[in-house]
Amino acid sequence: MQELGLRSPLYEAGLTKTEVRQLAKALGLTNWQQPAAACLASRIPYSQEITGAKLAQIEQAEEALRQLGLRGQLRVRHHGEVARIELAPGEMRRLLRPGLREQAAARLRELGFRYVTLDLGGYRLGSLNPSAVKPTGPPEEMAAVGSSRNFSREGTV
What we know:
This protein is of the alpha+beta class and 157 residues long. Helices cover 35% and strands 10% of the residues. It has a 3-stranded mixed beta sheet with strand order 1-2-3.
């Protein structure tokens, strides 16, 4: 994030995550024990421009899915006009229930995505960095369904 000119003042001050939580609790902040969450910019492929509009679109899309009852690890990856949803396996079943799938797709389209997809690989760290993600099936199976390598940091789909 330094290359974008962003700063992390608490990190720069030498505070650990535990110390930040302790300070937040002492200050009476209600989110002092909220689980850590990855920066929304991590949902955008590496070579794509990070804009406030994209970040807002991602945030609203993830919130819309949570409002529909989806829980746990949930990410909406931004690939231009494609929203790629990553969920824990149990949540995939929930999303595919009759009616819920249609509501989710409609809501994300309202937010400006033309296509809404469910990543069958589920939620996984580093899915926008192909070198960090290991395929989870035999090579012939991965070729048949596609892989995260179809989405690169260069923005090709």
